[in-house]
Design a protein that fits this description.
With 449 residues, the chain is an alpha/beta fold. Helices cover 26% and strands 26% of the residues. The chain is built from twelve helices and 16 strands. Strands 5-4-3-2-1-10-9-6 form an eight-stranded parallel beta sheet, sandwiched between helices. Strands 11, 12, 13, 14, 15 and 16 form a six-stranded antiparallel beta sheet that branches. The chain has a two-stranded antiparallel ribbon with strand order 7-8. It is globular and about 70 Å long. The chain starts with a helix and ends with a strand. The structure holds beta-L-fucopyranose. The site of beta-L-fucopyranose (FUL) has 6 residues, from loops.
């Protein structure tokens, strides 16, 4: 039997790669779903769409990117090819591309250039499931085709921060079943873009388990190595009906992926942090009927504070219209998100003149004195994840009317924990007490707003 000390030593030895740290620091970034579906009012195309229907006459990638930057996001992942197989770049490997549409322009080029111009990262979504390709289901012939497309995207458009591959796959569709050569795909991505994280059906960033924006109360980044296979195994489980799919997934997700109790039985562990992905509207693609269904600001802020502030990253989808622009209702909401974040997190009261932060007892307590009694609506804590994720439970005490009272009790911190007090509390002094951790805690940031 492993002692508690041996177990903790084994757990804290699991740490992120440089690329995973950079990814985590991206925090909040955009998904852009755009393809022939935008013109057919569908969520999943079947691959028979005629490229002639694709003509987003007013497309302006800078309009998208400016709205994304305005929301406080730091990256953009574009569906370069969704399940219908239509390519937003002039792939030389198929005729099912923008080059054969009336639009003709290379959208991947325009979007990646706009990202660079406005200082955000660019990533690609490339669906392994391709309902157009005649090669799909033919084993190595399709793998060669998919790898060829990967190579076009990873060599022609500058630095890529993420390759997003999902597991959706029509089992037995028209008798076609493709077993993806994942290891080969990963090797090509590592060779051509060593800094890119491979998400969902990949080894770097895992799917949080639902598409509705729900988060776990205790999200762990050190998890059993077999967690990496979940999406690949579940690759046939998805349904086109998003709403039903979301509901079903929520009730099916596993709440505990990384507690000490769970990990002590696991031999192989990995650093595999969660990403929360959801859409600003009910669908992933634009539908005119959803123009007035843009999710309320409060709802999106809630997802932000529980994902970025819950040791995850937040990938928010905004679908361009058939004109090739973000709809004004989405642009307005993105602006409101950015405005909220800029205002709420503008001044860290713990860093104002006269304030002080003292760490005691091997990092187990942190005392924050503010310069005066202030309204506090958020406390932000960060662990230095280069030393793994250590904190298992903690509480916060605030001095209210001269006495310290417990105002929050929680479990994990990880890369970032945001605690919201609503209504705001009035205090001039806070104590953060780490009750349980894997070896000494490494809290590296305390923010009071
Ligand atoms: C899923 C896809 O089937 C959806 O259409 C969407 O792209 C979502 C992000 O991933 O697997």
């Amino acid at each position: 039997m492993e002692t508690r000390e041996e177990l903790d030593k084994r757990l804290v030895a699991v740490t992120p790669s440089e690329r995973q740290i950079k990814f985590q620091e991206t925090e909040f970034y955009a998904f852009v779903h755009f393809t022939v579906n935008t013109f057919t009012d569908k969520e999943w195309g079947d691959g028979t769409e005629n490229p002639a229907i694709f003509n987003p006459k007013k497309l302006n990638a800078e309009q998208w990117v400016k709205a994304i930057v305005d929301a406080g996001m730091r990256g953009l992942i574009l569906t370069c090819k969704h399940h219908d197989g239509f390519c937003l770049w002039p792939s030389k490997l198929t005729n099912h591309t923008v080059a054969y549409s009336p639009f003709e322009r290379d959208i991947v080029r325009e979007v990646s250039d706009a990202c660079r111009k406005y200082g955000i990262k660019f990533g690609v979504y490339l669906s392994p499931w391709d309902r157009n390709s005649k090669l799909y289901g033919q084993g190595k012939a399709y793998d060669d085709f998919f790898v060829g497309q990967l190579k076009e995207l990873l060599t022609g458009y500058g630095n890529i921060f993420c390759v997003w591959v999902d597991g959706a796959c029509g089992e037995g569709e028209n008798g076609k079943k493709q077993f993806y050569d994942w290891d080969r795909y990963y090797a090509v991505i590592r060779e051509l873009q060593p800094e890119a994280c491979i998400n969902v059906c990949g080894p770097d960033i895992r799917w949080c388990g639902n598409e509705a924006g729900h988060t776990r109360p205790a999200e762990w980044s050190v998890v059993p190595a077999r967690t990496r296979d979940t999406e690949k195994i579940a690759e046939n489980s998805q349904k086109e009906d998003n709403e039903e799919f979301r509901q079903r997934k929520i009730s099916a997700w596993d709440q505990d992926l990384g507690s000490r109790g769970l990990l002590e039985k696991e031999h192989e562990l990995v650093w595999y942090p969660a990403e929360v992905n959801t859409s600003i509207r009910p669908g992933w693609f634009w539908h005119e009927s959803e123009n007035d269904k843009v999710r309320p600001l409060q709802d999106l802020i809630h997802v932000y504070e529980n994902s970025v502030g819950g040791n995850s990253t937040f990938l928010l989808n905004i679908p361009p219209t058939n004109e090739g622009l973000f709809h004004e209702n989405d642009v307005k909401r993105l602006h409101e998100i950015g405005e909220y974040l800029r205002k709420e997190y503008a001044v860290n009261l713990a860093e104002q003149s006269g304030a002080s932060i003292e760490t005691g007892e091997n990092g187990k307590t942190v005392l924050v004195r503010l310069s005066k009694v202030s309204a506090v609506s958020h406390v932000v804590l960060q662990e230095d994840i280069r030393f793994s994720q250590r904190v298992e439970s903690f509480h916060i005490e605030a001095q209210l009317d001269g006495v310290y009272k417990t105002v929050y009790s929680g479990t994990v911190i990880g890369y970032k924990k945001i605690i919201t007090f609503e209504p705001a509390m009035y205090t001039d002094s806070l104590r953060i007490i780490i009750e349980d951790s894997r070896k000494d805690p490494k809290v590296m940031f305390v923010g009071v707003y």
